[in-house]
Write a structure and sequence with these properties.
- The complex is a heterodimer.
- By secondary structure, chain A is mostly beta strands.
- The longest helix of chain A has 6 residues, at 673-678.
- In chain A, a hairpin with a 5-residue loop joins strand 1 and strand 2 (10-13).
- In chain A, the strands form four sheets. Chain A has a 26-stranded antiparallel beta barrel. Chain A has a 15-stranded antiparallel β-sheet that branches.
- Chain A is built from two helices and 48 strands.
- Helices cover 34% and strands 33% of the residues of chain B.
- Chain B contains four helices and five strands, in the order H-E-H-E-H-E-E-E-H.
- Chain B has helices at 2-6, 17-22, 34-43, 119-151, and strands spanning 10-11, 25-28, 58-73, 79-93, 99-113.
- The chains are: A mainly beta, B alpha+beta.
- The interface between A and B is large, with 88 and 70 residues.
Chain lengths: 686, 157
């Protein structure tokens, strides 16, 4: 049987409908009432058309958008978005949250108030956690829940009193994020309570007050935005009146980029910390988004760049903050400008130029301007079986120096010609199974005459670290203040195994530089006699299986018959959230260390993560991280124990603990950057 | 070459690399992919605007990024070696949208040592290795495309 109200805004189905008075209906047996986009089910319903009131009794179930309520009795006013339900159980359909109350009232569209109620996102009658409160206000429009005079229970134990608490019901809504608790040698006990502010769909901020028992109260802020052609993120941390250092400590960074079309872009990349160990003390796993603590320096720049088909150019202001040592203060480049161009001409000829201008500044010692130009003219032919090229060029550099040591010129010009020849052949064979193997011998001959450069200061120049592809460079110095003398040939032999898609399954290469002349330019700029042949440089990249990758590089000194440098990296990644990394690195008189790291699930709910760095040279463990995660469905927890070395050698241990109650606290942008630094390939689910 | 020949090696044949690619569009999916695409175009001398035809396949480069990791530290807690890891993806699509080479990921790495003599020189090494990684990435993508072309020659009209 079906009945309609006059305006048909209420439709009623029931086994039996009675009532002589058209203003009063009474329905019994599997009653179903549809009104205002809602449905009400009950054993018995009385409908009063005069004040549009429904009174339902017996197995009442109210299905409203996003909310299902079950109760023995309910009273609703169908045209007023109002209603009262006694002893309801409710479910937030899209949140997987549920609870009960003594009374629930609808106050308006999408607004409900529970009296003496509870809330939890855990299923079942004994939830792992729940909030009990005198008052719970659900606002569907603002996507938030406000609790008054409540308490948080964890496994039936009250853990927090909540005089007033608001939390979001959507993932990107303003509200508190999962708090974290921890302790470290330097900071003492730590409590963080991040607050997420959803400013606009393309902007948000996270504000984290942190209480550090040995330091004070720190405020960390993060702001992110995303535009159509721009994006950026900035951080500002302040800890006023730090108890450890006796002063206000702070740090900030800003990264911003904007594209203007036609290849023009600007970028800001600024970093500053108020004391060298700031990153060690406040970064790491206990806080997100700061770089790792062992960076020796922070580079900042403001850039304007142009990338065209033939020309790339840019202007930048660059500054450096040195953290590892403060005895020498580094030069700032104010500004640095560069242009590089490449123009293909007829028949394989081409022209190429690189020019840059730098003004190097610092508070003491020699400073100055450098104008450096490297024009080149070349010819290149490329065939499938190989390539050949020849190049002529020049290094033309002009310095205008101030505050030079006595006896040294203020104006220095250095012009050096450059000639080079290079070539290579490509042999290949079919390995079967649609695999191709290549063997590629190659050479490069370079000529640059020797010139004493001891009248030129070292602004930005040091010896370059050599490795297989870098062997073929013209200048083995990084920076333009020194141009090496060259009358040498670099010989290389490489081999690859490629699958039919051209993917490299294996690459191996070995090379050496052979000098024909004994005149070299050393870092001091003097011409010295030195005719040693270079070390041998080798590299191997191998992917024997889809889930296993190996990478190795070696530098072998044939005269001393020993390795100068050697490193080996292996990554085994048998599935999602499973990874094992091994890294061994050796550099004679400098580094001899091994890092083992990995992630793996332990059963269905547990997950472990670890990293261990050990120095064989010093016979000591350097850094260790152990993480454990447990996912209990409606709640999850993460524990991290972390040992690090602050700049200067002091050890710092930290422990960090976080509980996530799903549906109550989101994680926001959790710091996973540090974890993937320490355990490459790791993915954290929460 | 005798030794190589006896192992089945021969000089590679087929069309020259620039010709293989002369008819290919190269596009960057995002701003971060621009350096690799620039190197790809320069390498194949496509810069002089030899525009590919409407029916030409398109090489799409996406998801390019270089991550810097600390590779080793000393007992003073200072990073001694850095690792730069390039990740990028590429795929070759026919003009009708059909996949010729399915999306392939590419990871390359280079390292450098920080020697506290000159911070600026360390930064220059890092920036030059970024450029070198883009070049090496472009080189490997070209190699992949040329291998593909050798194994799947275009049907002659």
């Amino acid at each position: 049987i079906q009945a309609h109200a006059a305006d048909e805004s209420v439709v009623l189905y029931a086994e039996q409908i009675s009532g002589a008075d058209p203003a009063h209906w009474s329905a019994q047996g599997n009653v179903e009432v549809h009104y205002q986009g809602r449905t009400l089910y009950a054993d018995q319903v009385d409908y009063d058309r005069n004040d549009n009131q429904i009174v339902a009794r017996g197995n009442v179930k109210l299905v409203a958008p996003g909310l299902i309520t079950e109760a023995p009795e309910a009273r609703v006013w169908v045209d007023q978005d109002r209603g009262i339900v006694l002893s309801p159980r409710y479910q937030l359909a899209d949140r997987q949250a549920q609870g009960k109350a003594e009374k629930a009232e609808q106050l308006g569209p999408g607004e409900y108030r529970l009296t003496e109620g509870d809330y939890s996102s855990c299923p079942g009658p004994n939830p792992a956690w729940r909030i009990q409160a005198r008052n719970i206000l659900l606002d569907q429009k603002k996507e938030k829940i406000t609790v008054r005079s409540g308490r948080l229970e964890f496994f039936s134990l009250p853990v927090a009193y909540l005089p007033i608490l608001s939390f979001p019901t959507s993932d990107r809504a303003t509200g508190f994020l999962a708090p974290s608790f921890g302790s470290s040698d330097i900071n003492g006990a730590i409590v963080s309570a991040p607050f997420y502010w959803n400013i606009a769909p393309n902007q948000d901020a996270t504000i984290t007050p942190r209480l550090l028992s040995q330091r004070g109260v720190q405020l960390q802020t993060e702001y992110r935005y995303l535009g159509e052609t721009s994006s950026g993120v900035g951080h500002l941390d302040v800890l006023p009146g730090d108890k450890l250092t006796g002063e206000t400590v702070y740090a900030g960074d800003l990264r911003h980029q904007k594209q203007y079309g036609k290849g023009v872009s600007t970028a800001l990349d600024l970093h500053y910390v108020s004391y060298p160990n700031y990153l060690s003390d406040f970064g790491g796993v206990t806080s997100g988004n700061l770089p790792l603590g062992n960076l020796p320096y922070l580079a900042s720049s403001a850039r304007l760049d142009y990338v065209g088909d033939k020309v790339t150019a840019g202007v930048a202001l660059r500054g450096y903050q040195e953290l590892a040592q403060s005895s020498i203060n580094p030069y700032q480049q104010l500004p640095q400008a560069f242009v590089q161009g490449y123009w293909p001409l007829e028949k394989g000829f081409y022209g190429r130029i690189y020019s840059d201008f730098n003004y190097f500044l610092r508070s003491e010692g020699v400073i100055g301007q450098r104008f450096h130009n490297v024009p080149r003219f070349g010819w290149r032919v490329e065939r499938p079986y190989g390539s050949f090229g020849a190049e002529l060029g020049a290094y033309a550099t002009h310095y205008q120096l101030q505050r030079t040591d006595s006896g040294l010129d203020h104006n220095v010009d250095r012009v050096l010609p450059l000639a080079s020849l290079r070539g290579g052949l490509v042999f290949e064979r079919d390995l079967g199974r649609r695999l191709t193997q290549t063997i590629e011998p190659e050479f490069r001959y370079t000529y640059i005459p020797a010139r004493d450069q001891s009248d030129i200061p070292l602004f930005d120049t040091d010896v370059r670290q050599l490795s297989y592809p870098i062997l073929f460079a013209d200048n083995l110095y990084a920076g333009a203040d020194r141009i090496n003398a060259a009358n040498r040939v670099t010989l290389g032999l490489s081999s690859s195994i490629l699958n039919p898609n051209g993917r490299e399954l294996l690459r191996a290469a070995v090379g050496q530089i052979r000098n024909f002349d004994d005149r070299q330019v050393d870092l001091a700029g003097q011409v010295v006699d030195d005719r040693e042949q270079s070390d041998y440089f080798a590299l191997l990249r191998w992917q024997p299986r889809q889930d296993l990758r190996l990478f190795s590089e070696a530098q072998y000194d044939p005269k001393a018959s020993r390795m100068s440098r050697y490193n080996l990296g292996a990554q085994y990644q048998p599935g999602a959230r499973r990874v094992l990394n091994l890294s061994y690195r050796y550099s004679r008189d400098l580094v001899d260390q091994v890092v083992l790291s990995g992630q793996m699930p332990l059963g269905r709910r547990w997950e472990a993560l670890a990293s261990y760095r050990y120095s064989l040279r010093d016979d000591s463990a350097l850094e260790q991280l152990l993480g454990l995660g447990y996912d209990g469905g409606c709640w999850a927890t993460r524990l991290m124990v972390y040992d690090q070395i602050r700049l200067g050698g002091e050890k710092n241990s930290a422990i960090f603990f976080q509980i996530l109650l799903r549906g109550l606290t989101n994680l926001g942008n959790q710091p996973t950057g540090v974890l993937t630094q320490m355990v490459p390939g790791a993915q954290m689910e929460f | 070459c005798l030794l190589l020949a006896s192992c089945g090696f021969h000089l590679r044949g087929g069309a020259p690399l620039p010709e293989i690619l002369a008819g290919i569009n190269v596009t960057a999916a995002g701003g971060n992919d621009a350096p690799i695409v620039r190197d790809l175009r320069e390498r194949t001398s496509l810069v002089d605007g030899k525009a590919a035809g409407k029916d030409a396949p398109t090489l799409v480069v996406s998801g390019t990024g270089i991550e810097q990791r600390v590779a080793s530290i000393d007992t003073q807690g200072v990073a001694r070696e850095f690792l730069l890891v390039l990740n990028t993806r590429y795929q070759l699509l026919a003009a009708d949208g059909k996949t010729l080479i399915p999306p392939q990921t590419l990871e390359l790495q280079r390292d450098y040592t920080y020697t506290d003599n000159n911070v600026l020189a360390s930064d220059i090494q890092s920036r030059e290795l970024h450029e070198e990684l883009y070049r090496a990435g472009a080189e490997q993508i070209l190699r992949a495309v040329s291998i593909y072309q050798t194994h799947h020659p275009e049907p002659q009209p």
